[in-house]
Each structure stands twice: as structure tokens, then as C-alpha cells.
User: Fold these one by one.
Assistant:
Number 1:
Amino acid sequence: MTAENPLRLEYVANFEYAYAAGRYASRFMTALRDEAKLHGTRCDECDVVLVPPRPVCGLCGGATSDWLEVGPTGTITGYTVVEIPFIDPMTGRERPVPYGFAFIRLDGADTNIYHFLEENRHDHLEIGMSVEAVFKPPDERTGTMADIVNFRTLQEK
Amino acid sequence: MAQVAVIGVGQSVHAPERNDVAHAELLQEAIDEALDDAGIELADIDNAVTASLDFYDGRTIANMAVAEVVGSYLKAESRVCSDAIHALTYGWSRIADGQFRLGLITAHCKESEGNLHDIENAAFDPFIERRLDADDDVVAGLYARTAFAHGAADRENAAALVAAARASASRNPKVAPLEMVDTAAVLESPVLATPLRTLDRAPRSDGSCVLVIASADTVAALDADPVWITGAAISTGRYWSDRHPLDMATLESARDEALAMAGWSSNVADVIEVSAKYSFQLQQFAAVLGADESDAGGAFNPSGGRHAGNPTVVAGLSRVAECVEQIRGRAGDRQVSRAEKAIAHGVTGLGAQAHAVVTMETAA
């Protein structure tokens, strides 16, 4: 049987959550908000420094007892320049394009975080460039990754 | 078929709101306890079966969020979006068929973080049903009316089971204290969906539960304290709106298969842990499983069952955990004398669409 007039049924889902950030993200976000500092945890077994901090090393299963400061400088390990506009969930507004987006290995860390880049010209970027976090002013920080505006490059290509 | 045993049990404290921990941290509490109980390290496991529900966790592929704490890097993790007793039957079959030898079965859920009505409503099909805005309580009200009318459940006795569960909860250190109530208080609590009252529904809860399971040769090598899984069966029924509220064929088939596997006649269990979100279901399921209501808090649901406060997903695995502790003689103030054989039950789906039954005993 074939439907002669196939229908689409519209449905708008709106799910609200209040996530408990928990022990690790709470401490990480609090230091970001109050001190503009970034932290990771070090694996007791294999010494890998994990950012964002977490209770267990996923590579070897070891516990992570030590907290240490990382960044705010780091290295681009991968990047892209995005040219498709989207609604930024952090602001509810369309994010202006183009914008740079990168994997960043913060100094002292063994894992990447990803964030926006101040630089949005593809030919001005390359893997291995040094970058530095640009923090919002203290009174504008709320304890989210948006407390970092973006990362600015510290060298020219 | 290889023999499979539970050699480690862990549970977080289950409470209405565990705002102190994120999902992975909540699960890690149970994992640490289970590994310690089994006398192994996280790196020793060769596979994991995790249970969680995306809509409760508020993210898709929610098992990714717990991959690190379950130690599944480069290992065979698989995930069940159902009650975790289904994860146990899955993990059990992995070891029973000889492919794996030492596994982790994990369950976590936080009922406190999302809107329960919206999450439950999302289970209904989006074509015909969802716009009618039903949730688990509406289904339960429809079912309960029929169950009470036909004597498959009794209004007062169902309320009495809630009161008994809360009394049992006071002897269970893994659930947060609940207000003690009597039968009258249950019957006088605010209406949920007639004929059910608010206290007929299990309390909202956040919690986690984890088992370590092992093959017989691994049990011997580790010198572990095993409780053997001698029967395990799951059965899926008709969709809730197509199934008559008195139809217990699904649970009966899971029961019959598990008992046949164990080689038991129907009433040899010393402990029966039954999982049900609503009081009238507890009566119906207990009757099928051969649990005596007058033993509530004793041989029937010594843990208090789900009405003592276990979240969805986790509830069925918590029933297994209690059976293991009972058989090992480690159930503290709840200990049932001569607990050598036990039945644990879990349920999932709208109007209890799918059931699982697991038998456990001291010898393989």
C-alpha cells in the first residue's frame, strides 16, 4: 500500500534539565569562574594529565588523585573555520560566521579541549601554533566554558 | 554452557536527589564498592554491559559519559536502554557462552534532573498517542482500576505493602530514610490518577548499582565468594494498550523459563525480590512469583523493593544485589534466615511490558 498524501506530524520537544555538575566539574568550573584558572587531574598509574578533570583515567583505569593547574596557554592540535551559521546554545542567537574552532592542548595537559579561536582566517592558522585563553571579565563569568571568550594566537603563521 | 556467578556487589546510596555527584561519579561509587567486594581492579574486567536511559541522563548515547569509570577502553562495552536486570541477563549470556570471563554490569539513573512527566511521555509513540500527554501514572491508573475491580490486587493490601516497604527501607543502609507511613496514610495521600494515590508510586530517586560477574574458572582463580546465577530469562509482552491489565503471561513465561533452567519447582526460593513502580503491580507480580504478601519485609522484598527508593533502570539490578547479599549472609538487620536460594525480578516498559527473572543460589 502506498500513502496517497503522506503526512508529516509536527512535534516540538522541550526537555528541561538541571544537571548536577558533580565533584569534578564543580571544582573545575568554580576555579574558572573565580580565578580564571584551568585545572586537570593526573592519573596515579600512568601520569597522564586529563583536562577536563575526571575521577578515573580512561586509558588505564587508574584513579586520579592530583589536581594541577594547566594553561592558559596551549597549542593548536587541530582546527577548522566554520562558515555555516547556527544558533549558539550559549547565547540563543545566531553565531556570526566565519569563526575559528580548534582542538587545543593546554600546556601541562595530555588531552585536548576544544574552543573557539579569535582568528577566523583559515590561511592564518596552522597546527602547532601557540594560543592563549581570553577570559571574560570577572563580573561576567558564571562558571561555564563560555567564561572563556576564545583562544587568541600568540604567533603569526 | 559455562557457570556464571556474581562475585561483587556495589550500590551508591539511593536518595531523592544526589546533587553532590554527576552521573559518572554516582556510578563510580557503586563500581568502587563492587570491585573492592570482588577483590579485583577495574583493569581486570574483560567486558561491561551498562544500563541507562538517554532521556533521564539528558543526552544521547549516554553510555559514553560513563565509559571511563566502567573501564571499557578497548574492551567490549555494550549498553542496554532498559532496566539493568536486562543488562545482567545480557552480561550473563556473554560469560555463559564462553566468550568472556569477568564482567561489569552497571546501572545508573537520576530521576531528579529532568521533568519526569515529559520524559515518561516521550516513551509513547509520536503518531497516535503522545499528544494525549499521558505518562506512567496515567497508564498505572488505567491498569490499577481493572486490577482492583477483578481482585488481582486489593486496594488496602496494596497500600499496606507501601507501608511495609518504607519500614524495610529503615533497615537498608543503601536508601535514604523515608517518612514512615501506615496504610491509612497511603490511602489518604494526594490522588495521583484514580484509584492510585501519590504514595502508591515508588519515590523519586537517584542511584546506581553494579555487579561483578565471573565464569567458574575465574571464580576459582580469584578465590571469590560466589553466588551462582542458575536461571535467567527475559520476556517481552504486548504493547501496553493492547495488553489486558490482568494478563500476566509475560512475567509467567520469564518465571517458567528461569525456574526450569534452575531446575526448581515454583516455591523453593528463600528470598524473593520483586520490582514494581506501583503498589498494585507489586501485588500482581508477587503473586506470579510466589511471594507471600504476609512476608513483606521478610522473605518478600527484605530490601523494601522499589518503594524503598530505587530509580528506574537501577531498580531490577538492586533486587539482584539484595538477593546476593542475602545469600552471602551479609544483609545486616534485613537478613533472612537460611537464605540459600533467591529470585530477583525486574521490569521495564509502559505498563510493565517486559519482565526478567533471575534465580541465584549458593551452589552452581
Number 2:
Amino acid sequence: MTTKPQALILYGDGINCEHETKFALELVGFDTKIMLTSDLFKTPKSIEKYQLLAFPGGFSFGDEIYSGKVLALQFEQLAKDYLVKFIEQKNIVLGICNGFQVLVNLGILPDLNYEPMCQLNHNSQNKFINRWVNLSVNSKLNNPLLKNLTNFELPIRHGEGNLIIKNEKASEIILQHAALFYENDVNGSFAKIAALTNKTGNVLGMMPHPEAFVTRFQHYNWLNQQLANDQAKPYGYQIFLNAYNYFFC
Amino acid sequence: MLTVKTNNLIYATVIPDSNNQLLSANNQTPNQISFPLYFIEQNQGNLVHDKNFNTIMTNVLTNSVNDKLLLFIDDNWQNFINQWKNKNFAYLIIKHFLPGVTDTKANTIKDALKLFNCKINIACGNIYLLPKTATPNDSLNGLVKKLQYNLFNPLIEQIKVVDLNQDYQEGFLEFKLFTQSTNDNKRNYYEEINLNLKDNLLEDISKNRLLALSLPEMKNVQNYFKNTKTQVLRNKFNLPHNPTDVELEIIAQTWSEHCKHKIFNSTITCNYLDKNKQISHSKIIHSLFKEFIESPTRQLAKIKPNLLSVFSDNAGIVKFNENYSICFKVETHNSPCALEPYGGAVTGLLGVNRDIMGTGLGAKPIFNTDILCLPNPFENEPIHPKLLPSRSIINGVRKGIEDAGNKSGIPCINGSVFFHNGYRAKPLVFCGTAGIMPLTINGLESHHKYTKINDRIVMVGGRVGADGIHGATFSSIPLAENSPKSAVQIGDPLTQKRMLDFLLKARDKGLITGITDNGAGGLSSSVGEMAKITNGATIDLNLVPLKYPGLKNWEITVSESQERMTVSTDRFEELKRLAENFNVEVTDIGYFHNLGYFEVKDQTFTVALLDLNFLHDGYSDLNLTATFDHNETVHFISEIAQNDVIKPNFDKLVDLNVHDIFLELLTHPNIASKEGIVRQYDHEVQGKTIIKPFTGKNQDGPNDAACVLLSLDSQQGIAVANGYNPLMSYYDCYSMAVFSVDEAIRNALCIGTNLDEIYLLDNFSFPDPLNSATNKLGENNLKCLIATANGLKDAVLAYSTPLISGKDSMKNDYHTEQIKLSDIPTLLISAIGKIDDITKCLTSSFKNSGDLVYLLSAGSLGIASSHFQSIYNLNSDWLPELNLNQAYNLYKNLNIINQNNLIQSAHDLSEGGLAITIAECLFGENFGAVLDISLVYGKTLSNKQSYIDKLPFKNNIALCKLFGEIPGSILVSLKPKDQSKFEAILEESTYTYLGYVTAESQLIIKDNNKTIINTNTATLNHAWKTSVCNTF
């Protein structure tokens, strides 16, 4: 009998996917706590009680200046050391959409060892996009959170998912940390990258929303029986399940 | 060298760092370059040369990949300008907000700077650089005019243009950015307004102060203040004999058409004339609202046990199951969107979100809907002052809905866009939100309020500014050139999102005894309304937090500054502690009592004191008359249409080719795919949207309605749909209402909603129904209103679908001396319903090749009011009809059929008619079909020959069958094995077998053994997706 892994989900100041992220984590077996970022910053040490930290999607600080910018500044100033330690101890950090943008702004992705080298910019169409997209896993990385997945579908819902990088030198490093690719060019992102992971694979930042596909009813075409049978497996569920299994392997 | 006076401002911009070579797919050369511009107020020291300041600003304002912070010091401007001049740019434009306009970016920057203990005042703007070619031979003034409503809106923003090839104007960097605090901080308590005046002067006061009070109402006010009882009380509080400006403003906001719905509650004498133009008989309507909206609901309440609260709270509340209730409200925000489309839409949507947050003890918003009725985007109408081009309106409104909804984390799951030149006077912007509440919260039924004597009055959220003053009274009069710009606001989704998170927590902790929205009328309305619960309230304006000093007391009282709620509590200290964690400001501004009056103080001085009975009931009832000619029935025609007399387009009629009509209709902006707009709204946040706007393997089959799960682990769904049919107003307003109800219900049924559990909202957006010197069509509009109300009542009773809430907007007109425009009478019906078992949900797409296609209908054929008719300007008054009783039975049977899993898809007939419906069913899975329409609507043609004979294509009735927009009609598909069971459930007269679905993507339609359509699905799909709607 093992105890359940503990997941901390942040909210407040414009984050808005905390409930469905909590639902997804509980579905696969996590114990969860939703906490205001302002509460976490008061006692950043409390992060030590958890094994998974989720930065959910949303519009923290209204996406002003740059998406994810101000929440990243707050972490930088108020809780960076604890977060770094959390990562070094092989806990999982999952940044989804706006959460991914925060992790990039913090320099945690592609990896803490590098100078900041990428940014999630406005989509090349200059429009917010909500649609489901086909994704493929970078099989070279063997990322533990993307186990048992190769090509799959998830929804994207963002206006700033266009990964831009600093220079030629950065491109190599970025490619080494690319966890997911879009099958088609959906937003102008460099090398069609949809997600980044750190070297050790325990930090994953992704623009698509895994928490939005953990039951079959969330798929846009679940009423098509054929599709329901062979394609509409909840891929997001698999990602959270991988996170759960990570602690028992 | 350029030397400029900078009035203590530091300018900063962020430009691309040219040392970094950016790798991005985006390489096109823009014809316009833009950078952010920051204005930083320098109060002490010399910040520019402070290295620490530079580091902090770089940290906050730039990303570390491709940005560089540029502080303008000394000759930097000169260098900056030269740099662009050398690159052949001709104009530099600086844009900034007018003082006092919400600047959300600046607020966030201030939040970020706090991390570095840096407290400065900052304002945000933009720099634009325009190349020479963009504007040949333009004068600067001409250029500014051109940029108006594209680059900036003069109501909220200001620009300065610098011609890079000219010498710089003295003072080009002088701005008025911050609202200046006056040295004289002590404001006057009030101004006494003398009402001992003659009638015409009383009217002047109402007009000049934008009070929108009629003469009888001004006289009611006059009489109230003459009353001895009033005077005794006033003496006690040291108030003058006459009203104060604070009091007059409170009265005006409370009595506004916007708040009191005086037209809907008016007494209408209907006189019916005989052939000799003599009154043969009269009938009195005591209140349109009571007779045609409330009364059918009361009637239906006997068989609808789930109605918890109707027409009384901020939204209608319905019990959903043993644990939860749902509430629903749709608002219009027409006038603000006419002036400032972006800000109008943001505040419209955030406003209706607050209605939900302020329903009962507070509900959580679960989805938004938006319906837009706009002028034709292709038309080059002359632009009158205050009439924006259609494209500017839709661009602004669309962006506003995107920002407000997406940033609040509320999915926008349903809506539509309708273009017609009947909306030139005012665009109609309907914003709707539904919410969910536990049935009981801490042991209390959540659909009541529990405000009691001595509870504190707490203002929550944003601060009060001069923005949004007179919104309620302003929307109660026609748009005109002198419409106030103070009524325009921007809105701040972040502040509201924080407030929402906080309020739900506070509610669950039992810290809230009552709650309402601060919308139209501001504090005067929210506190004035809640005061009715205990019979009195007192607030102190000196405690109200302001955005900036210098506001008059009456302005603070009626300001509609956004993102505020009013809450009553008996545990203020706990509430305040909780709020701090959420970054939300809460202020105790007074208390509730039972002394019978609403008192407004400024510290110890009373500045307003009004008897609550007088305040809420002292306005005058309107008495209206409608005279009906002997041949006029309740089926009434809007004369607004006379502006748009139909002239048959004979050129187009010469060789009417069915294939061409089909494609032309598919690209019509009212019919074509709205995917370009819809995908910019987040419709999946919260994770519960299980019937989305689009379906099918290519995500492009349009659904009729949407469904969200009650909760993430629930098997029950909440459906939402809408219906409207404004083109029908040109023929028959009664049927316009009936068809609108019918369409909303059909849309809901098509995703599997249970007819017994559908609840409706009515939103009337009408031209002014009051006759006056400037409004000759008032009586006609009133008769349209009566006809619409009649149709609404008959339809909701026939379908047993109660109305639970609604809203009316009665001044959709535009008046100047040169031009008078009025909107076409429009009724929007929104439906919310229950799906008990989501596995019974339906979508519109055909599912399997070989499935059989049936048309179900309780309607009869007609061509008038269709898009086919309007494109080709056909002169026909052959109206489609609907048999309401037959429709009810049909819909009940459809529910039974679906419960027995006998159908695979359902899609209603609407804009464009049967042909469009068929095409849309094919798109999702890229199927084809072989169909025969020979028998379609055949039984409804028996007595229509006279109409048919008048048609230019009288031998080709198939055109009417394909493109007529027939109410009561639904296209379904089913598996062949289910055919006999399916037919057995239906009345024989309500279904027609059409054919079958094919895997081959080819649509073949036959009529009397002749193939009339034979076309590839991809061709149809391409036409449908190629529309103006994808350009917004």
C-alpha cells in the first residue's frame, strides 16, 4: 500500500484552468491542493510537501507586458530557490499553456543551466486559436511524462504559443529539449515545437491542454462511434497517468 | 538638436535588440511598425540616470531574448526619429489613453514594480511609424481622420502625429496623461437644484443634466420635495428645501428606462377602428411585461416545479437536480458598443458575468454566449458622426468578447453573427452568461438573499472614477452627436477574475449575506435596490475608494465604474482578510437599516436622503395609445422597412441557376461558417464543453447548440441555444416572435435537450415606440412591440417553455438633424435546457454512409423573409407558417425517438433553408448524399397557388423548397434498421423521407426524377468557408 503522491496546483491573479487540472490529477490518483500563488509566496517552503507542481493555463496578470511575465517575476523574486530545489529533487513541474509561458520566462525551460534563449510570442496569425491539433512526441528524449504516446490529439487555446529563439546557437539546444511537435504549422512556432522539457525530463511545459482531454466526452467528435473506438482515447489522461506512474517506477 | 519640454515625464520604449538574429517564420515587411511606449512620472530625483531604475525597468518591461529597453534621454528622440526617417518612414505617431481611462497594462506594471519596491506612476501608449506610401498627399489632419477608429478611438485615446520631414512642433511631447489632483481637495458636498420652476425649465434641467426624466416625472420630483413630511425629515438632516444634485441623479438613474422598463410596464390603450375609421372597441394592456411575459410563466409554473426565481433577481434561477441550480441572463450593450466597440463589448460581457455572480448568494459563471446584429460589412455607408463603419464595430466587439471571456476563464460556447442594414442605427450586442450554484450554501437556500439590519455594505473590486457616468440614462435615449463620452469604459478582466475567485470563496465560507452587481446606476442602484430588503441603507461617500481625486459626490454615487460588486456581510473583518490574499479591494462603506430611506453622506454631512417608496415607485406610469385599422390584426408589420424598399433585381433573375444560388447563399455572411470568429473565443476552458461549436472529423460541421457538463464528473449536461428572425419583422412581428422561440427550441432539441426542461430568456431590441416630434414611427413601433409580445406569449405557452428572465432595449435609434435611423425590431430568444444523460447527445453531422435522411416539419412552405429572397430582391409576401400544436407534438416525439437511440444526427433549418442544412450535415465527415425533394412540403401547398403564380419562377417550386426558411423543420439521419420504429412514433404528416447518406462526397438532389443539384461536397464546403467572417 503506497500513499498517494501530492500535487500542488496554483491559482489566482488570472490563472483559470485550476479546476480541470485538479480533476485530471485526481482521476489518475494524485491527492491535490489548489493554492493561491499569494499564499505560496508567503510560505514558499510549503512546496516541499508536494511531488508535483502544476502551473495551469489561464491569463496570469492578464497577459500584460508578456504572457507569463509577471507571475515569473514574482517567482523569481519570492520563491525561485525553493522551486529550483524542488526540480533538483526530481519532483515534477508541469506548465500548461500560460504555465509553460511562466516556465520559459523563469528560464526553467529549456533548462536552468542556460541563459534565457527562447520566448513564446504572438501566434504568427496574430490571433488567439482554439482548435484541436495533431501532435507527435520527440521519441529521442524518452520523456517519462510522454510514455506510451507517439502521435495524438489535444486542443490548443492560446494567442501566444509561437516559440521564437535567440539565435542559431540556441536552436540546437532548443531542439534537444523539444518534447512535442505540432504536425502542422499552427502558430509559427520554431520547428513546430509544442512543448519543451528540461534535461532530466521532470519539467514539462506545453502549449496544448492535456487536462482538457481526460474523458472521452471532451473530444470534439466523441459522438462518432468509429472515432470513439479507434482514435478518441483520452491522451491527456495518459500524460497525467504517466506523471503518477513516475513516482512508482 | 531637438530639445523638448517633457513635463516631468520619462519616456521609455522597448525595441527589438538588433544584436540578436531572430529565428521565426514571420518575415514579412510590415507597412506599419509599432512599439510600446511608457510614460513614467518623475516626481523626485533623476530617475533616468539611476542605474538601478534602468535595471528594474529592463527586468519588468523586456523579455531577455529579443528586446532592448530604450529610455529617451536628451537627444535620444532625435536619434530615434532620424533612424526611422532614414528608413523612409514618414510619420511618427504617439498614442495614449485619455486621462482616467482604464489602463490595465499600467496597473499590471505597477503590480510588478512593487516586487522591486519601486512606486512610480506609469501610463502606457504606443509608437507607430507609418511609411510614406501609406498616405500620399495627406494633410496631418486628413491623416488623423483616416486613422480614427482604425488606429485609435477619439473617445478614449489621443494621438499626436509627427511628420518626420517637417520641423518638430513645439510641445509635441507634452501630454495630459494622469488625472491631476486639484489643490483644492475639499469637494463641495452638493449643489442645490432649484425645482420651483416652470415646466419648460424643468424639462431643460432634465435635458441639460442628461437625466432622461419626462416632464411628469420632473413634476413628481417637484411634488415630493414640496411635501411637508419630506421637509420635516430634510430639516432634521440639515438638507435644503430643494433636491441636491446627488438626489436628483439618484432619482434619474433609478427611474431610467434602463432600470425601470417604463415602456414594458406602461398602460397601453388599443383602439380598434371600424371601416369608417371610428373606434369600434378598445382594449387596455396594463403592462406588456405582466400580460405577455410574466403571466405565461406564472401559468406554466404550475407544471414546472423547478422554477426557483424568475424576473426578480439579476438572473432567472432554475433547479437543475437535487444538488444544483443554474441561472441564466442575457444583456444588451448596444449603445456603448456603438461608440467604443471594444470597450463596450468587454464591459458588456463582464457586466453580465457580474449579474450571474450577483444572483442569489452568488453563482459561478460556467459559459458565455454572444449574438451580434450588425450593419452589412460590404456597404460603404456614409459615416455619420458616432456611426462607426460595420467593420470597425465587428473588429472591436469581437476582440472585446475574446478578451473579456478568455481572460475570465469562462468559455464562450454559443452565439451568432447577423448582418443587415437594419442595424445601422445601433449595433445589437447581446452578451449572455449562465451560472451554477449549490442549492444550499451553509444551510441556506442559495436563490435568496439574507441581508439584514446592521449588515455592513461592502464595495468589492475596482475603484470609482469618472468613467461610466450616466450609462443608465444614456442608454435610455437615442444615440446622437452629443452622446456623452463619459459613458464609455474599457473594462478590466483581470480585476474581475480576481474578484470572482474571491467572492466564490467568501460565499462558501458564509461571509456574504447578500450580493448584487454594480452595473447601471452604480452605487445608487445597487445599494438602493438592496436597501429594499431591510427598508433602508446609509453609505458614506468619503469611504469609497476613488481612482483619482476630484470627483463630485453625485459622480461617485452614480458612477458605473466597472468590476465592482456590492455585498452585505455581518463578518466584515474576515471578508477583508480573505480579500487581501486575492489582491481584491473591499471597503466598508455603510450599513443597512430599516428607517425607510436611502441616505448618502459625506463624512458627517448628509448629501442625499430619499424615501425608499418614492425612490422606487415615484416615477410616472406611461400611458400609450395604439390605434389599429379595421384590417390590421395582431400580425403587425414594421414600417422601419420602408427605408429599404425591395426592388426586384431582374438582372439577377434572368437565368436563375440553382447551383449558383446555392453557392451564393453558402458564402452569405449570415450563413457562411463563422469559424474564423469562433476559434478566437476559448470555448473549452473549464473542460466541460462536450458539444462544441464545431464537430466532425475535420472540426468543421456546425452544431446547432452547445452543451456543458454540470460538473467534470457528471453525466448530466446543460444545453444552450438561441433563436431570432428579424427579417420577419418586415412582414409580421407576431410571427417574428413565434419563429424566434421556435428556432431557439429546435436548436436546443437538435443536440438532445429535453423539451420539458427548456427555459427561455427574451431580449427585445426595438426602435423607440414612443411617438414624438422626432419620432413619427413611434406608434408603428409600439404596434410591432405588441404584436411581438403576443407572438412570444403564444409560442412559450404552446411549447410549455417558461421565460425566466429577460431584458428590453427600446431606444435603438440614431437621430441628428440630417438623418434618422432606426433598428429593425428584433427579439432574441435564448434557451437553456437539461440533458439528463449526455450519452443521448446529438450533433448535426451525418454519421454513417447508408443512413437514411428524413425531413421533419410542422411548418408550411413560403419564400418571404428568406435570404434567398433578399439576395435576389424577390417581391413576394408568401410567408412560411408554423403550426404550433403540431410542432409541440413533433418535438415531443423527437425526444422519444432520441431516448430510444433511433437517430444519428439532427440539424435544424434556418438561414438559407433546406439546401444549406443538408450541406452543413455533410461537412463534418465529408460525406455525400442522394436525396429527392419532390414530396417536401407538398401537403402545405394546397391553397398557395396565388402566391406561386406571382413568382418569376412559378414552374420551379423546387427553389422554394431548397431555399425557403421554414420554421418547425429539422433534418435527421438514422440507421436503416431503425426506420420502422422511427416512423411508428411520428405523425404521418410530419415526416418526409428524402434519401440516404453516401461515402462518396457528392451531393445529388433530385426533384420529380430530375437531378437539380449534383455537386462535390468539397465545392460546397469551400464556398461556405470563404466568407467575410473569416477576416475578423
